[in-house]
Structure formats: structure tokens, C-alpha cells
Amino acid sequence: MIKLRKAQINESEKILNFYKNLIFSIRNSEFNPKWNENYPDLKFIENSIFKEELFVYAEESIIACVVINDELGEDYGNVEWHVNAEPDEILAIHTFAVNSMGNGIGKEIFEHIVKKAMEKNKKTIRIDVIDGNTSAEKVFRKLGFKYVDSVKAFHDAVGWQTFHLFEYDLE
After folding, report:
1. Which of 15, 20, 96, 115 has the smallest C-beta neighbourhood within 10 Å, fewest atoms?
2. Which sign, positive or negative, has the C-alpha torsion 157, 160, 162, 165?
3. pLDDT, average across residues 15-38
4. Is 38 helix (H, G, I), strand (E, B) or coil?
């Protein structure tokens, strides 16, 4: 049974520590989302919990976190996506992190996301991957995501960066 559930506000600090520990452990590795001590921060985490968009996978401790919503960056508006979908027909994945690679948890979480997206009649799942995070790109391609485009965009935590956009067709 999937252990993915909505995060609770009293877990905010634990979630922040999960991300900080993960950022420290993958620094200088091929998994390089370029997150830092400023992102994800406590304000982002609490806001995501308040909006009921932050999910955790936990056993004795938090093993994975993911934000799931329908929000994409403004810079992605002119992209020619493979699936023609209205904003309410899109699911977007953000800050997807698993602290234990290679054990199938990421795939299990993704399958859960797909199931929930289909139940909500979504047409597509979209994600961006920051340039240089080739391991994440490999994972998402393996899960069935297709490369769409690359866009230079500004993000508060990392400044101007190139983001590679991927899409998973649910139709």
C-alpha cells in the first residue's frame, strides 16, 4: 500500500530538514536540482501544505516529498506542449525528492500520481528539470515522460536557468 499522504503543518520543520539533508547529500553529484539553503524554504513548505499540495512518503521518517498542483511557470506559456490541455486538465510536479534512490519508491509515487490524475480527468502531467540534472531527466524518461522544449526562466532560488520541460500523456 502506498504511504504517500498529504503533509501536515506540524511536519513543516521535518520536511524542511528532509530537503536540507537531501540537498547536502547530493551536492556535487549527478543529481543536481540546484536547490540550496534558500529553496525549498519553510515558507514554501508551509504554503504548499496550506494549499494541500505537498505530499510525503513516510515510514519511520520522511523518505520522499512532492508538490502536486496545476501551476506551471509563466515562462512556459508559449511552449508547444504535445498534449493540448486547458489549465484545469494539467497536473504539475514540483520539488520531487526521494532520499533512497533505486528502491522503486519514486516509481511507486509516480504511479500513484498517475492514478490520481486519471481519476481527476487530467490529460497530462508536466514537469521541469533544471539544466544539468541529467539523472532526473533519465528517471522521468524511463517513467514515460517525453521531452518537449527547453526554456530559460527565472526562479527566486537559482536565478536565470535553463529548464527542460517534459510531459506525460494521460490520454
Report:
1. 115
2. positive
3. 75
4. coil
pTM, to two decimals: 0.89
C-alpha gyration radius of the chain: 15
The number of angstroms, rounded, from the C-alpha of 34 to the middle of its chain's C-alpha atoms is 13
Q: How far is the C-alpha of 130 from the C-alpha of 44, rounded, in Å?
A: 18
pLDDT of the residue at 25? 75
- pLDDT band at residue 145 under the 50/70/90 scheme: very high
C-alpha cell at 86: 486547458
Q: Measuring CA to CA, which residue among 166, 156, 165 is closest to residue 34? A: 156
Q: How many angstroms separate the Cα of 96 from the Cα of each of 5, 15, 84?
A: 14, 12, 24
- Prior bond of 40 cis (ω within 30°): yes
CA distance 143 to 166: 11
CA distances from 67 to 83, 92, 109, 124 (A): 21, 8, 12, 16
Distance CA 169, CA 26 (A): 30
